[in-house]
What we know:
The complex is a heterodimer.
Chain A: H1 2-5, H2 25-46, H3 57-64, H4 66-98, H5 104-119, H6 123-133, H7 138-145, H8 161-185, H9 189-197, H10 202-230, H11 234-240, H12 247-256, H13 263-291
Chain B: H1 2-9, H2 15-23, H3 27-51, H4 62-69, H5 71-104, H6 110-118, H7 125-136, H8 157-185, H9 189-198, H10 203-214, H11 216-231, H12 235-239, H13 245-255, H14 258-282
Helix pairs in contact in B: 3-14, 4-14, 5-8, 5-11, 5-13, 8-11, 9-10, 11-14, 13-14
Amino acid sequence: MTETALPVPKMKTPRSSYKSWIGVAPFFLFAILFLFLPSLRLFVGSFTTEAGDFTLANVTELITQKYILDAYLLSIKISAVTALGGGILGFLLAYSVTVGGLPKSLRSALITFSGVASNFAGVPLAFAFVATLGRTGFITAVLKDVFGINIYSAGFNLYSFTGLCLTYMYFQFPLMVLIMAPALDGLKREWREAAENLGASSFQYWTRVAMPVLLPSILGAMILLFGNAFGAYATAYALTGGRLPIITIQIGAQVRGDVLHNPGLGNAMAMGMVFIMAISLAGYSWLQGKTERWLK
Amino acid sequence: MTDFLSTHLAKPAAGSKAKDTKTSRPLWSWVWFILGALYFVLPLLATLEFSLSMERDVIGFKAYEMAFSDNKFWQTFGYSVFLAVMTIIVSIILIVPTAYWIRLRLPEARRIVEFITLLPFVIPAIILVFGLIRVYSSPFDVPFTEITLIPPLTNYKFGTNVLIVGGYMVLALPYMYRSVDTGMRTVDVRTLTEAAQSLGANWFTIIARVILPNVRTALLSGALLTFAIVVGEVVLASFLGIQAFGPYLFLLGQHRAYEPAALTFTTFLLTWAAMGLIQLITGGQSQAAGAH
């Protein structure tokens, strides 16, 4: 211990000097130009007036302007609902193909399909759902012609909160499957056997052993799902044409410049989003640390 | 807890009995699986059905014929493919040497670089394009150089192309970096480098002819994922005013019904092909990408 405290051994690797950092300079330059500068500009812009003076007005407006606060709340609501719904369905699916006793071939089919569906978003996804649940959509027609149920006269509308949630679910639950399948694989069979040898019922095993082990990764995955929906723009815009004023749509309107012309407020709205996303990711990585105790 | 479990595991266990009760009743598993499968398949089936019924009472490929005969489709789609290929090439040129260098000489940079590659998860596409436009729509002061002004990048074609490829590189960064880094983990970078050096290879030769071929499967899966993300991308393209496939499909959807459905189904098949190839290449360890 005393030896390592001496400054001499530090000189052992002279190669790893400042010169080595030149090797990663292009990467940092790229990060500065395309990540940091744009974020910094939005950040600084949130706290400055158009004349360039410091101000908190833009940030306070986020809370005092009702339409902005509503947009944030609507985005959070949609993200939370689809994270929960997609999370539960995705978990049950991942469960069914991992420890649920379904044939192995179904597992790889499901994983491949999830890879596709979690990437199938934006404009094509919106169009697919119009063809499915729109006014003349496939399921709408089948329900009306075969079962005599007119979902649109019953109050359903694809271009609404419910409709957008159903659409988002299409990329949400496959993401959950992709994250949870490896986690469920991490459940050791010995744990179940040990629990059963001690006289535990299946219910007790799940509530007392499996769930406590899985819970951090389930919550972590749901947070990822939350962020995934929170940042989505194209799907909502293509589906509702901006009629459902979620925060990304409001920001998009600011970028287009077709709402009130206050650049500072637009910056602040964007930073508010980054702030919420950053909190989610921090929560995720915290939970990730907890998960690694049991599942590897 | 582990100690507790392992001491009880030491006893010979009647595990087979427990397994029987578990696997004999996968009824609920089937229910969830079928529910999920329906959710997957129904929208695709509906889109396919819709795209095939352009002519009244006839199942036919009219919508596909119409969609594919539009010159704008080929132009925009070709442009998106071009942007995807550019993104992939520049990403590889940027990321492979970086990941290589970190493994070889600069392990202390690992944490910060990994942190940066995760940032795109915090910054959604809409925010990214917003920031890019704010920064590069005004003449730009380059620090530490004699050139104090460069023209606003958003004002001319080459400039917007640079911005969109840069933006797509950011969107693809988490997946690209992850694939390259995973690929390098299985390669003994140091030994390969020393062997190449002793044979007189320079840095360029080492990276291009020794390291790159060794991580090519990893690169391919990252590249395919990037391709799937970029080809249908609409947010960056439409805000930067680029005539790519995403904005074209969106506009087509505003005043047509059947052709967009045909193109939607085609997009799905493309995504499927890309993912299927990844699956084939990596042997089942597929990746999750965020949706936009």
